[in-house]
Amino acid sequence: MGHTRADLAAAGGVDGVVAAYQQVVINTAADIAAAVRSQRS
Fold first, then answer.
1. Cα angle vertex 17, ends 22, 11, to 5°?
2. What is the pLDDT of residues 1-41, one digit of tens each?
């Protein structure tokens, strides 16, 4: 946690880009889950 996508991409080339995309997907899923929970309550 705490790394930017640029840091990840610079750190590991392709691996960093993959990790960055995975983090974006995780963050997006968490945002969606939070939105769903807030709508239900």
1. 115
2. 566 666 655 556 788 788 889 999 999 999 999 999 999 98
